[in-house]
Amino acid sequence: VYTSNQYDLTRHFQIEKNRSFFKIINKVSMSSITIEPHTPAVFVKPILYGNTAKHFGTKRDSDGHTHKWTLYVRSFYQEDLSTYISRVQFRLHETYTNNIRVVTHAPFEIEESGWGEFETQITLYFVDPNEKPVIFYHHLKLFSTEPDVVTGKEALVNEFYDELVFHEPSEQLARLLICSKANPSPVDEKEYALQKSETLAKIKTARQRVKNEIQELTERLRITQENIKRIRQRSVDQICVPGTFIGLLNEAIE
Amino acid sequence: MANADVLDILSDTLTSANRGSANKDEIIREKKKGPKKSIRRPEGMKREVWSLINQDDRESVPIVPTDTKSGGNSYARWIKHSSMTVRPWQWTPFTNSARGPNDTFVLYHWQHKLDPNEPAPEYPFAKFNKHVDVPTYTDTEYEQYLQDKDWSRVETDVLFDLCRQFELKFLIIHDRWNNILYPDRSVEDLKERYYTICTSLEYARTKRQTDKYNFDAAHERRRKEQLNKLLSRTKAEEEEELYLMNELKRIESERKERERIISHDVQKFVQQQDPHVMITATTPTQRTTPSSSRRSSINQEYLQRLNSSTNRTPTLQRTTTFEPPVGIKFPEFKRPGVFLRSQRMILPASIPNKKAVVIDQVLKQCQLERNPMACEEVVEEFNDLRSDIVLLFDLKNALNSAEYELQTSLHRLKSENGPLSSGPTSAQPLSSGSTSSTDNTKTFDFLLTQPSTPLDSVTSPRLSDSFEPSNNVRSSTSIYITMKHLVNFVLLLCIAHASYGRYLADWSQTTDEALIEEALKKSLKSISIQQNVDLSQTDVADIACETHFENGLHIKLTFSLEKQKWECALYKSSVEVIGIENVKCEQVEQENPPSETQDEQQEPAKDNEVEADDEAQIDAASQQNHDNEEEHDDEADVQQQSNTNTEQETENDDEKDVASDNNEQRIPDEENTNNETKNNNTEDNQESNNGDTNNNE
């Protein structure tokens, strides 16, 4: 990036003298900005997304729908997402009318009914138009084997935790990101904290196991290689000892 | 071509004088073209024929060198200048000056008619009559420099005469050599004599060493013999050689492939294990070395690096930019923008499907889901874990290929050992650990039939065991083994081994202290892992150890520990590097059988054992020699946990009862515990006695 700035500099200087003066100053000022090393600004916003689904109890005759579901995106900390998210686009199955649903205000969710599971695409558009929208997928889950859910008493919740990472957002976006910060709901926090610690522990043990096995295998590999070397050495000695005649013959045959 | 035609057509009718309009370029060209005029077509000849003959340098480049006299157009010019009549030929006599000045032999041939005033040309082939200068020596020279014990003066003179006569055509000289008068000389002998004389003379005359007459007689003799052998191969031999060469090529390429895999993975591992080690840029180039000596040096280098990496203290200089371990490079987000954390966990498409499957398998084993919740630490750890898994997979592959390499090297060694079996070159060191092996080839045979992987049932089933062997390079094993001499050899050994090795449960006592101690340590370790109890060696008493060599050294160690008898089976591979590995450890014959469950545990084990041991017992029994003590040992050792009456047999020392007693035993294992306890008690006494006798031995 730096070198291209330099090139631009010289070029401008040559061709457009009058107008370029202003541009040069601009470029110089820009390049002076980029020269300074600075730590990248990173903002992290944890979100939860997913769906809930509840069985009607009966199959609706008109269209065969059996479940009522809600597809949503919300903030982990119960804050207002609309401060930095301008709109959320949910893309449903083609058989739904208007299968691309856009929600422009909080809460960012879609309530619908249906009879089958499918994959949905969720796109988050940000307040800052320069930021590219974030796209991810979520499999809408309706069916479950838990008895409560089957009977229709409890709703099925299929929720995922994820984090939005903002790398070097623009000034205004940064301001927006900083100001909105609320408290997480206790239920959520506890549940996810537990999940996090469990997962982390499991991963750590797995890593330990793998590391041990790696150690073991390396040792064996080393030993085997040593053996190979030894055998090769010995075979070389053996060839030399009985005389060059046989070696010559071998050469001749080759 | 078309241009030339058009120009030609036009140039017939259109000269520069005829042209009306003066083209500036043409005039310039004409002026320049003065000295180098193109030859015009003769009138009688067709245009196409002339264009074939007329060689224009500007047009095409010929592949075959052509005559370049007069711009390549010598033939064209000749045609032009010829008057289109045949040149006269004359039947002229001639002599060949090469035949010598006194030659009067006249031959006739056709020649072009010569001008009468020009002298007759020399016969053109006379210049090819070259002569070789064979040196001559005087008597004094001969006496001074050229004496040789094998050659008399007369012989030497004759030799030189022949050389002069036949122009150093040694084959003819050799043919002409007089076998009757002089001793029989081979072509090499004659040549040798001639060239040594030449060199000596040269040196004597000019006092300078020259390399002009370099002749290595020994080398020549060998070379000719080799060629003779080559010529006299039978068809079958020739085919075999071709086949072997192809095999060799293929094996070499596979070996190179394996080397590449091994070195590649070792390099990756080294990078992974010790980030402090600076990896030099030479590692990638080491993959492409063909010769075996360089290969072993590479391995050495890797081993060195491995060793050094493990030996280095942690106070090494840190590399400022530590690359993530070579496993998987996950997508990093450095550019500004918004991303979802889970996007960092996506497995890159560069991972081949095989590895992705492996990763899933391992994750499943560790009870982890494929995409865990995406917070920062989890993502980091998870990515690292997957990286490690990939690394493990690669290592396993490398290990497999290395082991295979080991086996083939042993094959080779054995095959070289076989035909060249001479005394001093024995492979003792490999099998020095085994007490009862005498045959070198037997150890090799073992190594051929079994991989050198240790059996370790104590640890939980390994993650790496779930990897399927993906080594395609092994396909040539079967073909390799069918080499003729190897097949015979191996078959013979296999038969011998199979027929005798297995049925002689030839357990022999050992008093090898080091072995016993090591075996004991291993057993204790495994037991303590089983029971989560720390045991020390001092708790152990009554140690007895037997060994039996069959595909490796099987060791049976019996000892009592806290009033419980233990029997441990261990195994030591002949490769002698893995060390002793514990196969299983079981409790034997409690003095006070505390619970049913334990007995039940022993029962099914005994069921299995008895079948196998029956034969062994029969054989063992039938082998009974008059030495009672040996009987004791053999039989006591053969029965592992089976509650047999053989103890009583030995006490009775009655051969006739053996068969009947054996029969009785077979009914056996539904025996009730009372019988068991009784036998156990007697056996215990026996065991302790044995223990004493063993210790005394």
UniProtKB/TrEMBL annotation, chain A:
Pfam families: YEATS. One of its GO terms (biological process) is regulation of DNA-templated transcription. Gene3D superfamilies: YEATS domain. The keyword Transcription regulation applies. PROSITE patterns: YEATS. It is found in: Nucleus. Residues 200-234 form a coiled coil. This is YEATS domain-containing protein. GO terms for cellular component: nucleus. Keywords: Coiled coil, Nucleus, Transcription, Transcription regulation. The keyword Transcription regulation applies. Residues 37-180 form the YEATS domain.
TrEMBL record, chain B:
Residues 123-201 form the DAMP1 SANT/Myb-like domain. Transmembrane segments: none annotated. Keywords: Chromatin regulator, Nucleus, Transcription, Transcription regulation. It comes from the Eukaryota. It is found in: Nucleus. Residues 240-415 form the DNA methyltransferase 1-associated domain. This is DNA methyltransferase 1-associated protein 1. Residues 19-44, 415-439, 450-469, 587-697 are annotated as: Disordered. Residues 674-690 have a biased composition (Low complexity). Residues 30-39 have a biased composition (Basic residues). Its main location: nucleus. Residues 628-637 have a biased composition (Acidic residues). Residues 418-439 have a biased composition (Polar residues). The keyword Zinc-finger does not apply. Pfam families: DMAP1 (PF05499), SANT_DAMP1_like (PF16282). The lineage of its organism: Eukaryota, Metazoa, Spiralia, Gnathifera, Rotifera. One of its GO terms (biological process) is chromatin remodeling. It comes from Adineta ricciae (Rotifer). One of its GO terms (cellular component) is Swr1 complex. GO terms for molecular function: transcription corepressor activity. Residues 657-669 have a biased composition (Basic and acidic residues).
